[in-house]
Amino acid sequence: MNSSLNLRRNFTLLLCLLLVSGSLFSAEKAGVTDGGKIALPRLIDLGAGKCIPCKQMKPILDELKRDYAEQFETVFIDVWENREEGPKYGIRIIPTQIFFTVDGKERYRHEGFMSKKDILAKWRDLGVTLKEPAAAVEKR
Question: What residue spans define the domains of the chain?
Answer without folding.
Answer: 1-32, 42-130
